[in-house]
Specification:
Largest sheet: 4 strands, mixed
Strand content: 15-25%
CATH class of the largest domain: Alpha Beta
CATH topology of the largest domain: 60s Ribosomal Protein L30, Chain: A
CATH architecture of the largest domain: 2-Layer Sandwich
Distance between the termini: 14 Å
Number of helices: 8
Shape: globular
Low-confidence stretches: none
Number of domains: 2
Strand order of the largest sheet: 4-2-5-10
Mean pLDDT: 98
Length: 276
C-alpha cells in the first residue's frame, strides 16, 4: 500500500486552482488559434482579443475571466492508496487556499438565501480504481455557460438525428448567452443524474483529437457542423466558430428510457489534471 498525505493533496489542489484560472490547456488554445486563423473580419478580431486576454492572464497571473466559477473535482483514487488524513477536507482546503491566494471572486452561496459568498463547497466526484496513484481533475465552471445546460428524457426509440437537432436547438436559442465559441459536452444513457455527470465529464476529454470510437466521432462531427452553420460566431457577433468541439459519452440505460444531457462551456474551458 502507498501512503499519500492529505497535506500533499491540499498543496496540489491549491496550485491546480491557480493554474486553471490563469492558463488555458494547450488543446483549448490550439483550437482557439485555429479558429482565429480561419475566421475573417469581426469574428477574427474577437478571437484575437480572446487570445490576447489569455496571454495577459498567464503573464500577469490574473484570472482569465472575472467569473472564476464553481470548482468541480473528479478524484480517482487507487485502491492501493492510503490517504493519511481527511481526503475531502484536503480538497476543500486546497480550493479555499487557491481562491484566496489568487484573489479569485468567491461566488458560492446558499441556493435560496444568496448571501455570504465563499469559494466552498466544491462539487466532488469520487471514483476508486486499481493501482496506487491518485488522479485529480479540476474543472472551473462558470455559470454563464452552465445556465445554458439542459437535460431531456427522450423516448427509447428516439433517433440520434432527433437528439442532434435538440442539441443544435439549445445552442440556437441560448448559445449566445454562454460566451461562444463553445465546447459542448453530451451524456447519453444511464439515469438522469448519470447522463448529467457524463455531459460534464465529456468536457474533460482532449478536444484537439478525434474520438477513437467511430460512432461517437460521427455524432460529434455532425453536431459541430450543424452548430457552426448557425452563424452565431465568437461572442455572438457572427462567424463560423460558434463551437470549437463537441464531445459525447455513452452509458447503458434502461429499455424504457433514453436520458440525454448537454453541458455547455464557454471559450474558457478551464481544466487541470494531476496524477500523484
Amino acid at each position: 500500500m502507498r501512503e499519500i498525505s492529505a497535506n500533499e493533496l491540499e498543496k496540489v489542489v491549491c496550485q491546480m486552482c491557480l493554474q486553471a484560472n490563469r492558463e488555458l490547456p494547450r488543446d483549448v488554445l490550439f483550437l482557439l488559434n485555429r479558429a482565429m486563423n480561419q475566421e475573417k473580419g469581426r469574428a477574427k478580431r474577437v478571437l484575437e482579443r480572446i487570445l490576447e486576454n489569455c496571454k495577459i492572464a498567464k503573464r500577469e497571473e490574473l484570472p482569465l475571466c472575472q467569473d472564476t466559477g464553481l470548482a468541480i473535482v473528479f478524484a480517482e483514487i487507487g485502491q492501493k492508496v492510503v490517504i493519511k488524513g481527511d481526503l475531502k477536507r484536503a480538497i476543500e482546503r486546497g480550493i479555499e487556499k487557491g481562491w484566496k491566494q489568487g484573489l479569485f471572486r468567491e461566488a458560492i452561496v446558499h441556493p435560496l438565501k444568496r448571501d455570504n459568498p465563499t469559494s466552498l463547497p466544491p462539487v466532488i466526484h469520487f471514483d476508486f480504481l486499481p493501482g496506487e496513484k491518485v488522479k485529480i481533475t479540476l474543472l472551473c465552471k462558470g455559470f454563464g455557460s452552465e445556465n445554458v445546460s439542459r437535460t431531456c428524457m427522450f423516448l427509447p426509440h428516439t433517433r440520434i438525428e432527433d437528439i442532434e437537432e435538440w442539441v443544435v436547438g439549445i445552442v440556437k436559442e441560448k448559445g449566445v448567452d454562454a460566451c461562444p465559441p463553445l465546447f459542448i459536452g453530451i451524456g447519453i444513457g444511464g439515469s438522469v443524474d448519470k447522463a448529467v455527470f457524463l455531459s460534464k465529464k465529456a468536457l474533460l476529454q482532449r478536444v484537439d483529437r478525434i474520438t477513437s470510437d467511430p460512432e461517437r466521432a460521427r455524432i460529434e462531427k455532425r453536431i459541430l457542423r450543424k452548430v457552426n452553420r448557425l452563424g452565431i460566431g465568437p461572442l455572438g457577433l457572427g462567424g463560423n466558430s460558434t463551437a470549437l468541439a463537441v464531445k459525447v459519452l455513452f452509458y447503458p440505460t434502461h429499455i424504457a428510457g433514453l436520458p440525454v444531457a448537454v453541458n455547455i462551456n464557454c471559450w474558457a474551458l478551464r481544466r487541470v489534471e494531476r496524477v500523484i
